[in-house]
Amino acid sequence: MTDVSGAPADVLHTLFHSDQGGHEQVVLCQDRASGLKAVIALHSTALGPALGGTRFYSYATEAEAVADALNLARGMSYKNAMAGLDHGGGKAVIIGDPDTIKTEALLLAYGRFVASLGGRYVTACDVGTYVADMDVVARECRWTTGRSPENGGAGDSSVLTAFGVYQGMRASAQHLWGDPSLRDRTVGIAGVGKVGHHLVDHLLAEGARVVITDVRRDAVERIAERHPSVAVVADTERLITLDGLDIYAPCALGGALNDDSVRVLTAKIVCGAANNQLAHPGVEKDLADRGILYAPDYVVNAGGVIQVADELHGFDFERCRAKAAKIFDTTLAIFARAKEDGIPPAAAADRIAEQRMHEAARARGR
Questions:
Q1: 268 noted as active-site residue
Q2: What is the DSSP letter of 187?
Q3: For the domain that residue 129 is a member of, what is the CATH number?
């Protein structure tokens, strides 16, 4: 565990001048033998142990990795609060290209760092990490979820993540068009990886028209082979400007909704699986001003965290699916609160989540 005092100046600046703020603990991890460099950020434990995935990504700088960990951890606090879980928010990022540096030794070293927190942080899969990786991490850390069924886990959480996003879309359609059906609606999905390809299945089963794009050719080819009716466009820029697009679903990395994309977006609803879709504060107002209904990302993509949280208590898929189905009602409640308060849905969701965290902290005397 690297002492913060030894961190580079740009990392220290990110830690102490981040606009995310309010984090309880940030741990910088380094294991020279395996090459591990990681950041574990705990935003809040007011509702219980921090729960959030491990992202494995090739960041340009360590400061960028710290900033992402802080941002993602804060988002997990709000996600877990809105999902009704007794967990706070945390996130970890491992720095590097998982295709080239991921090894058993590195994952075991990472597991030891998570274990050293004594249960304050419970980890799981995220971008760049998979069920098999969590099985390795769990050999050193009992506070690991997202493991395989063979190792006492629940397996792939992307199934319920996609199901929750689908419920969020249905709620958005109900609010905007008075009918939750997505039949004959055109849905554009940017990113058809772990979550996106399951979302395609839900939409086609209901009779929606689906258009996809992904930077990975193999991901697109997998969908095209299984579902010839799915249309493919070259990139996200083309996708978001399509005529007749009803719903846009960002399902890759964050920051998809920025000044440029919102200005040209043709869809009337944005509802996707990606975390931190709003590139900066104010984008939620820009969406509202253009009459675009935004389903807050951390609300609709909570199916996965509902699953991994349940794993800690003896996993039951049908119980988790029933909880994830309630994302429909939660999303509608957020839209109603937004209308009542005269604010964008993202702000309404934040208010509800902050109220729950505040009440929990007060009950614990914090």
A1: no
A2: E
A3: 3.40.50.10860
Q: Tell me, what DSSP letter sits at residue 45? A: -
Q: Cα(82)–Cα(357) distance, rounded to whole angstroms? A: 10
Name the catalytic one among 37, 79, 91, 194.
Answer: 91
In a domain, 351, yes or no: no
Global pTM value = 0.86
Q: Which amino acid is at 110?
A: Y
User: Of 248, 75, 287, which is closest to residue 168 (Cα–Cα)?
Assistant: 248
How many folded domains does the chain comprise?
2
- Let me know if residue 265 belongs to a domain: yes
pLDDT tens for the chain, 366 residues: list them: 444 445 665 654 555 555 556 899 999 999 999 999 999 999 999 999 999 999 999 999 999 999 999 989 998 999 999 999 999 999 999 999 999 999 999 999 999 999 999 999 999 998 899 999 999 999 999 999 999 999 989 888 889 999 999 999 999 999 999 999 999 999 999 999 989 999 999 999 999 999 999 999 999 999 999 999 999 999 999 999 999 999 999 999 888 999 999 999 999 999 999 988 999 999 999 999 999 999 999 999 999 999 999 998 889 999 999 999 999 999 999 999 999 999 999 999 999 999 999 998 887 766
Where on the phi/psi map is residue 146: left (φ > 0), alpha (ψ -120 to 50), or beta? Answer: left
Distance CA 54, CA 39 (A): 10
- Same domain as 15, residue 128: yes
Helix (H) / strand (E) containing 43: strand 36-44
What's the burial of 200, exposed, middle or buried (CB within 10 Å: 0-12/13-18/19+)? Answer: buried
Same domain, 166 and 260: yes
Residue at token pair 């505040």: 358
